[in-house]
Amino acid sequence: MGESESYGYSDNFAIRPANYRVRVQDTPAYGDKLYTVNNAPGGVTLASGYLYPLIALATMDGSDIKADRYTNLQAQELNVTLLFNDLGMILCDDSNDSDMIANSTFGGLFQDGELMGGSLVHHNVGNYTFHLEDINWTTVDQDSSGDLALGGCVRGSGTNTPDAKGRYGCNIATGAEANYDDIAMRFEPYEYNITNTGIVSIPSNKAYLYMGDINRSTEMGVILSADVIAQGMDGRQLTNYTVGCMANDVALDLNYLISTDRNMSFDRPSYDGIWTEDGKRYDFKRVISYNYFALNTVPVDNNESNLSRVIPVPREKFLDVKKGETHLDILYNINKDLNHPMNPVRVTFSDLNATSVDSASSMKGLDSFVPFAKANSGHFGSNNTKTFMYAKVAPYEENYGDVVGSSASTPIYVALYCGNMPQAWCDNMFAINPMDPSSGFAFGSGSFAQDGWYVARDHNSSPNQDGGVIAFVPDEPTTSVSPTVGNLPNFVDDPYVGRLETLRTETTHLLPREARITVNLDPWLLHHPIRSNGQPFWRLNFTDGNQGIITGIGETGNVLDVGGDTRSSGKIDW
Fold this sequence. Notes:
about 35% strand, Immunoglobulin-like, mainly beta
């Protein structure tokens, strides 16, 4: 090329920044707390749905001095991507890389080398790599035909080391040079929504229920139900929060108020044990079912002794098909001692809270903020007060002695216990509905205490109600009880309410004949002051009346007193 030919020649070329310096921090409300910078090791854990300000500079080579003239005109000039890292988690619902420009989860444009209005947010959980890149700034240096050999820079590269032709990478990018790295980001839940809460006492869903050993039966107790949903700050369900992907262990806490006979106090937020008057400790027991497994197939948590104990939700209970949620049913009852009666205990189940230490993230000015339940979630609402009562089915007498004839009246009754306490306290605890003073008492009017026992006049022995007699078991085949179990009237329907006055024991054997009848009951109705199995029974001796002086109940059920025993029978005072 001669001198005249070179006159007026020009070459378009670009001078690009060398790197990006990126900082993730919080808002001024939290003191602009710095969480990470892209030359720090280890990455950062962030909360889903939480908007993080980004401070970024396009820098000069070898320093963090900004490149003053580097400016974007529109967001599409940048490639901002969260690259998904499966790290062996192959069952994630969403394992796609996130184009943050297309998804509007990245905000800001560079002006004179500084990102203005920069922000970042992501709406799921997972492990990602944050990558920032500009492939457009050096377009003028790239061959218009796409020939990589003819370009003035190395296309598709952000290297700051020249190649054999003296060309640098065309792109400005994080991760292209040491100390200006991509940022490893792990996203965790912002909170847990505890929803679809419910409370029901089984089997009859009254405001009161009977104490019982759930190792023997899961058909009597209080069931608390709830869904636990992992959410972002904006309320979106986090579909990657599953056992096959990113779920962690969650701990639930039960808030409650409890009323016991200790100091005659009501509605305390905690307690130091439940004790009988003779010093026997009672405990709460529970069964926890996840995702609708039948309660009677789940092992009882026999270590449970206090309502305040954490309710675990292991990560494996967040099933992949549920995409970020799980369901719980928690059955509670007070473990009944069959020999030592207990005064009523009332519990108001207030709400559930949730925490997950393993899901802590950097937010709200803290490097490790543990997520908890969404505000105003987890409440059980109305009808959340339940009274646990000690109940028994018992005969009028255990030992009827001699009975003239082959048939005798042998009534049974249902009773509730409240002993050595002021009548007003017992009345309060026995209220059919504690929230409605006009609801009446479970023992009804006209019933008097005898050694702390009250006739249970609200007891419904219909199927799937309060329980009842399973079988009358005579000790020999010529003795029977009528009506038979299948034809028994309902306790609540008997004219005497709470009792079965029409019950009779009969024998077809030649007289005299001794008989003993044991009563098989639903386990929550068992009680006996001596027998370890709690089964009630009665004994009688059928006689033809020729055995001499007798005391007993005859055909009409009347006591025969022919110079007989005048000691107290200890039966309930009607």
